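Quiz preparation item.
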């Protein structure tokens, strides 16, 4: 995140799938106005407490709910859209709506994020909610309308003891820019 935001002036950021708000807090500390959205009530409550503790409640607008529903009502010209960990939580239809919305952000805006991919599969005892794992090539095709600034494919090694031992997820990390109209 630090390298990404050093390259662009602080402005308006949407953190979709914000979770507990690590990225939202970082951006707000660095002058951004952040709109953070997540469907997880517990994560949103933790984000609210963190924003209040750090005195950033005026820089972060926090919404518990569906990212696509939030975007449907959104009218702000956004400079940065964060999708860390969100794409693999969206059905094909919801992900398609998200990509269409991202294609309409103002020219020059950055879209960055990460997603688990289908290459490594998912341990059967992982105990997560519904995930929509897609091949890395599918994500790359979906983001092909943007100027690719960074694209990495790799693995995440983790363990959720005692329920799920050591395991591997395949993943992508990306940073793209909406090109200016010609």
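Solution:
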């Amino acid at each position: 995140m630090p390298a990404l935001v050093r390259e662009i002036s602080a402005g308006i950021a949407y953190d979709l799938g914000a979770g507990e708000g690590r990225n939202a807090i970082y951006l707000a500390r660095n002058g951004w106005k952040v709109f953070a959205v997540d469907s997880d009530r517990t994560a949103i409550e933790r984000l609210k407490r963190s924003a209040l503790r750090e005195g950033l409640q005026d820089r972060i607008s926090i919404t518990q709910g569906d990212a696509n529903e939030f975007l449907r009502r959104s009218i702000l010209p956004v400079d940065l859209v964060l999708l860390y960990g969100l794409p693999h939580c969206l059905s094909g239809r919801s992900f398609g709506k998200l990509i269409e919305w991202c294609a309409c952000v103002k020219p020059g805006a950055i879209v960055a994020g990460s997603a688990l991919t289908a290459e490594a599969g998912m341990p059967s005892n992982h105990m997560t909610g519904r995930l929509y794992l897609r091949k890395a090539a599918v994500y790359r095709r979906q983001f092909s309308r943007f100027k690719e600034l960074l694209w990495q494919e790799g693995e995440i090694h983790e363990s959720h003891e005692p329920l799920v031992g050591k395991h591997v997820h395949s993943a992508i990390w990306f940073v793209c820019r909406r090109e200016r109209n010609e």
